[in-house]
Amino acid sequence: MTDNNRISAITAPKMQILLATLLIRANHVVSREALVNELWGGTPPRRATAALHVYVSQLRKFLSGAGHDGGSGHDQGPLITKLPGYLLRVGPGESDLHLFQRLLHEGRVSVRARRYDKAVTVLGSAFALPRGTTLSEVSDGPVIGGFVKWLDEARIECAELFVESSMALGRYQEMIGLLRSLVVDYPLHETFYQQLILCMSRSGRRAEALTTYRGVRETIRRELGLEPCRALRELQQTILRAEEEEPEPVGV
Would you call 79 helix, strand, or coil by DSSP? Predict the structure, then answer.
């Protein structure tokens, strides 16, 4: 969290889990039972509720020190007690998560309307938002674990739509570097390979595109025992036909 350019961070694992859970469910009540389950799983300590109360108190102090007015009572700051648990109030623009969700929604709408210039702008902004701490390293509880899976899928969708919109604007060469990094991060996600091979082909790099296809085919066969999807196979055949149909250069 930041306050007048001063960065504050929580390093205690249980506090990280508590804050992450409340941020994921921002502006909604999270029950004490759910928080205990997130913090300790199926083996909570005997005095888990009392320990949770201590962590909540410490988090209130942290939020107050990070620039939020904690006030004199529990309900004066952003973290309030509300049966059956606690609620973290987050205003518009205070959460990168909410900003990401809004930008992704705007991007989807723009792509459907074929407003590709706007789609590239908003989706690029969404994808560029910092990812921060890898939450899967903090906890694998039901709230955080479910959120990590959702966020990964949402980022994949965001990247796909960003590249699709950029390609619609003819920016094939510009997308190759990004797509190379995406296939490293998601080595079995065939859509990124399809986009990469198409961008290479349309940038005049057909030989490289065919080499990339052979690489992904080997990866998919080795890891999954399958052939690439139909769209990838058809794309390879299209490039091969273009190679065969291109006339030989006439000698002088």
Answer: strand
